[in-house]
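[[Encoded backbone]]
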Amino acid sequence: MQFRETQAIYLQIADYVCEKILLREWPAGERVPSVRELAVQLEVFAAPDAVRQAAQYRKELFIEKDLPQVFRSLFLLGMDPEELKPRYEKYRKQYFSPGREGKE
C-alpha cells in the first residue's frame, strides 16, 4: 500500500480496513487478517503499533460520534439499552457465527 505523507499511517490503515469491510472483501463471518498479517500485506514496518492504533482510533471514533446518536435515539424512543441485548446477540449469531461463510 502506498501511504500518503499528508495523513497518519494508522488513519490510512483504519480507512483501508473499513473499506475492505464495506466492500465485503472481508465478508461477515469470515476471519479477517491478524495484526501481523495485515502489517505484512500493507508493508507497514512499524506495524503492530500502527495497526493497533488504527483499531483504537476506530473504536474511539465510534464512541465519540456514533454512540451518542444511538443513545439519543434510545432516549427519544423511551427504550432501555437492555432491550437491545437479545437483538444484538441474534445479529452476532446470524452474521458472525463460525461456519457462516459470509451469507446474508
